[in-house]
Amino acid sequence: MIKKLLTGKVNSITAAALMVALSSLTSRFLGIFRDRILAGQFGAGDTLDIYYAAFRIPDLIFNLLILGALSAGFIPIFTSLFKNEDDGNEEAWTLSNNALNILGLSLIAVSLVGIALAHPIMRLITPGFSEEKMRMTASMTRIMFLSPFFLGISGVLGGILQSTKRFFVYSLAPIFYNVGIILGALYFVPVWGIHGLAWGVVFGAVMHMSVQLPAVFNLGFRYRPIFDLKNKAFRRVARMMVPRTMSLAIAQINLTVETIVASTLASGSLAIYNFANNLQVFPVGIFGISFAVAAFPTISAVAFDQQKLVKNFSSTLRQILFFIVPSMVMLLVLRAQIIRVVLGTGRFNWDDTVLTIHTLGFFSISLFAQALVPLLVRVFYARHDSRTPFFIGLGTAAINVFLAFFLSKRMGVSGLALAFSTANIANFIVLWLVLRFELGSLDELKILQSVLKFSAAAVLAGLAAQLTKGLVWPFIDMTKTLGVFIQGAAAGLAGLGVYLLICALLRSEELSYFWGGFKRRLSWKKLETGDQGEVRGI
Fold this sequence. Notes:
Strand content: under 5%
Helix content: over 70%
Number of helices: 21
Structural class: mainly alpha
Oligomer: single chain
Number of strands: 3
């Protein structure tokens, strides 16, 4: 069984998404545990403002060059070159080595520049920090600039694993990354002080890379010192990466602007913004991104077959909404309980809690858009169109930047969340309309029918959760974390039960599809193993 997980090929979008989602769930829970440790040890104040500000630029480099840009160009090209494990796949491995070497050297150069210019950079993105706070932020940033190199190598390895549909090992990387950061908070901080948090990020990046190496070597990869900028396959990847990098730059500009604005607000605003953001991306990462990642190889294979493309797109989108619509409602209804249980410890006081509740509420209203945009964007990428998402993103970025400055003056840190949500909803609407114009139909009628079922069930689930909170409240001690947890858990289970019941009564196709696949996944006897370790199931 272990060998199947490590080397097995998963062809089904739903099966792959489930595998990625379960690992993402584990990683997100570790992220929540990480945030609880940070909130308890430091509270929403200067220390965590420094940590999150220091994280901004190295994370920007990772997102621009690795997370999306490389995968957007690398996966479609590598998939077209990689035949099967029996072939030599010389062209595919040449492309991989070329990408590893060129990207690795580029990241080393960028990181060295970042280390040298850390203090001037921090002056630009944290204008509201005091001089002492800014110096500490620059010092932390220099350490964190070691992480992009390891994450860059890991990004190429992850692209190989996604292209060959080895989703299990690929999905382990974020888990190990969070483990490294947690170890930094628990064991490095007592030794190196706040700098231990930065070393934890670097350690997590090393683990992110290391866990994927054995599986890639098992596929037949062998390292070679190839550095060929004229290689045709690499040039194709580079051409696709450029507009994708520009598109991602827009999102990173948004985050950078929000960091700049948050640095001018009350102490702890940047920490509260990040805490709330980390909580709201929990369902987005588990459902939206997991399905989009799992669907990308399949969508790439049928990108120019309109009928098959729309069919796969509609099915994946409806599966995402099946999970994300109730997540929106339950996050709004239970956000106070969630925040108090997850973050309400140590130095994280009630004032911090109230500010985070308001901020999370404004984030939550755009969950559906945040969850669907990754899928919409990947349809454009699969059709070798990186420019359209870029120009659409450019317009929505302008909306976000304007609203961030405007609303933060009137609403504080929660205004940043409202600006973020407004821009994401606008991004979703325009992407949808453009794709609809290109394809002629996105199976809207079937999607609408499903959405109406989900929405009705989710609203009733939210009412059930709200009613359960009131019924449980007199019987528990709400001054204790356990009491708040019991109230939230009871309300959440009641809401989940009502949601599933209503979906069943309305004969939701997505519920039937998911439940049937889940039951088959539980029974390993029903899985067939092909000659090449291919796992067939749902």
